[in-house]
Amino acid sequence: MTTSAAGEPLIPQPPATVTALRQAVATVAPAALPAFTRELDQAADQARQGSDLAPLQRFIAQWSVYVHIQRHPRLAARYGQLEERATTGDAGEARRAASEIGRILDEAHAALGQALR
């Protein structure tokens, strides 16, 4: 998949629902569907055990951010490069990569109107 010449996202940001996010993940990052399903099952189990919706709310927030990043191919590629550098680079390179990852995540949370971490 590619973006338009103007660098537009592949798809619009979906609503923050499990169904819409699952469809978006299937479109922008189908390889992530098993992780999506596994994490959804874990969040649902935690919610049931604790009679608390917080695990599901965290799941929705996390995957909304993931989709926000993945629907922009250049940003997603940069994010992947930074993750690699954070785990394989020397200490200084890892710190710089982690800092940029944090900035990307902060911007995604802000764009989605969620509280920053």
Summarize, please:
With 117 residues, the chain is mainly alpha-helical. The protein contains 5 helices and no strands. Helix content is 71%, strand content 0%.
What features would you describe in this structure?
Pfam families: DUF6247. InterPro entries: DUF6247. The protein has 117 residues and is an all-alpha fold. It has one domain. It is built from five helices and no strands. The chain has helices spanning 18-28, 33-50, 54-70, 73-88, 91-111. Helix 2 packs antiparallel against helix 3. The radius of gyration is 15 Å and the shape is globular. The chain starts with 17 loop residues before the first helix and ends in a 6-residue tail after the last helix.
Main attributes?
single chain; 117 residues; mainly alpha; globular; disordered N terminus; DUF6247
Helix-strand pattern, N to C? HHHHH
Q: Give me the count of strands.
A: 0
| Stretches with pLDDT under 50, minimum 5 residues | 1-5
Envelope shape: globular
Mean pLDDT, all residues: 91
Structural class: mainly alpha
**Helical fraction:** over 70%
Pfam family, one: DUF6247
InterPro entries: DUF6247
Topology, element by element:
Blueprint: H1 18-28, H2 33-50, H3 54-70, H4 73-88, H5 91-111
